[in-house]
Design goal:
The protein is of the alpha/beta class. It contains 17 helices and 14 strands. 42% of the residues lie in helices and 20% in strands.
Length: 433
């Protein structure tokens, strides 16, 4: 029995030595000059569409991923060597990155405290460098880490805390290091358009960043709805597949195909003139529907008129930027069967998930509608005159300011109706809704 146990232990030790030897050989292959390969992902100011930075990311021959390579390197005592090799390779490309664009490199607290890291910056304008602290493990001596950060800052380098909000370690880094940049973790960015808890946490980190004079960068942005939610919160700097995938230089951002965010507001003065000069419902409505489509990015916008006597909605004017073949203008639907009625009964003005929030509507199911907006147009006496609506098959977050500006259109329409009995004729609905 004892001999069997000894034999098993010897076999285990042999297997461990062989595994370690194989791992060390693999890691050392990535330490040759020019290795590892480096790709760069742009960091974008979405308000100006300008690339402000580029994160350097190491890539390795197999599909196991960089995290596995760095973990394996640490397991055989080559973790620092591989980190410094990746940083060296990235710095070697700095001259190919445009002036005014910073280079972001990843470094663990161990690498930051190594004198060898400071040596890598000799002959380099460190003011163009941002060092992202990536380690999630416990830091034994924060005073030593803070001192190393201070020395690197003295030559111009800036610091970012990666994966902020992902756990206790990253938040402690934020408090102790007082970073120049805070990178919002992908776990918070994902579904931020539909999750109030993620938005609340992101907002708190944004306020903290503003308090200490740091820039907040949202990582992992992949959809327009996530981007809209972040911009609504005040997050202007993003990184993710939506604005640019990692790749070789030169940087190739892929900005969303949409009007610049800074232009996505209503020209209230122009619209007020349109409303005031309208001679009929059509000349009043067409420009408003185009403005709603431009403002929201939704495919379809339309005005309905409420027929109180028939208890129906007349879909009078439709602006359709999609390839969906809608029912013709003038189509009437019973009020109880409309999404407008469902929105009012549920007490919501919009949703980015119609199947979840407004299930069972035949029209929405037929056309695959996911995002829907419906705002009532009331007379001064509270009568329902109709609704301003927009819809899309794509899930899209509608910022609060967007809904408020469309509410302004409802007030303009209602005011125009009130001042012109000819337009209001045959549109008087019941009091309240």
């Amino acid at each position: 029995m004892l001999a069997e146990l000894v034999g098993q232990e010897l076999d285990r030790q042999y297997d461990e030595r062989r595994r370690r030897s194989t791992t060390e050989t693999r890691i050392r292959s990535a330490l040759r000059p020019g290795s590892p390969a480096i790709v760069f992902q742009p960091i974008v100011n979405v308000r100006t569409s300008a690339v402000i930075g580029a994160e350097a990311l190491a890539r390795f021959p197999d599909a196991s991923g960089p995290e596995r390579w760095f973990a394996d390197a640490a397991s055989v005592g080559l973790g620092l060597e591989l980190e410094l090799a990746a940083i060296t390779a990235a710095l070697g490309q700095l001259h190919r990155i445009p002036d005014g664009v910073y280079l972001s490199v990843n470094a663990s607290p161990i690498a930051i405290q190594s004198p060898r890291l400071m040596e890598l910056f000799e002959g380099i304008d460190a003011r163009r460098i941002v060092i992202e602290i990536t380690e999630h493990a416990h830091v034994d001596d924060y005073d030593a880490l803070v001192d190393a950060v201070r020395q690197l800052r003295s030559i111009g380098a800036r610091f970012a805390i990666d994966d902020a909000g992902a756990g206790y370690s990253s938040l402690r880094h934020v408090v102790r290091i007082r970073p120049d940049l805070i990178k919002l973790d992908t776990s918070l960015t994902r579904d931020i358009d539909t999750d109030p808890a993620r938005r609340a946490l992101a907002r708190s980190l944004l306020l903290f960043a503003e308090e200490i004079g740091a820039m907040l960068v949202a990582e992992g942005v992949e959809t327009l709805t996530e981007l809209d939610a972040l911009v609504t919160l005040g997050v202007d700097h993003v990184q993710g597949y939506l604005t640019g995938r990692p790749g070789a230089l030169p940087l190739t951002p892929t900005l969303p195909d949409r009007p610049p965010l800074r232009q996505r507001h209503l020209d209230a003065a122009s619209l007020a003139r349109v409303v005031a000069s309208a001679t009929d419902v059509e000349t009043l409505t067409r420009p408003l529907l185009e403005s709603i489509a431009s403002l929201t990015g939704l495919e379809i916008s339309y005005l309905t008129l409420y027929d109180a006597e028939a208890n129906e909605l007349d879909h009078r004017f439709i602006h359709n930027n999609s390839d969906v073949e809608l029912a013709p203008e003038g189509t009437r639907l019973p009020w109880p069967e409309t999404l407008c009625q469902r929105c009012q009964s549920e007490g919501i003005s919009w949703t980015a998930d119609v199947p979840r929030d407004l299930p069972g509507n035949a029209v929405a199911e037929r056309f695959g509608i996911n995002t829907y907006l419906s705002l009532p147009v009331h007379s001064a006496e509270g009568r329902l005159l109709g609704t301003l609506c927009a819809a899309s098959r794509e899930r899209r977050y509608l910022p609060t300011w967007t809904v408020r500006e469309i509410e302004l259109l409802c007030y303009l329409v209602a005011d125009r109706f009130a001042r012109d009995e000819a337009l209001e004729h045959a549109m008087l609905g019941p009091p309240g809704r």
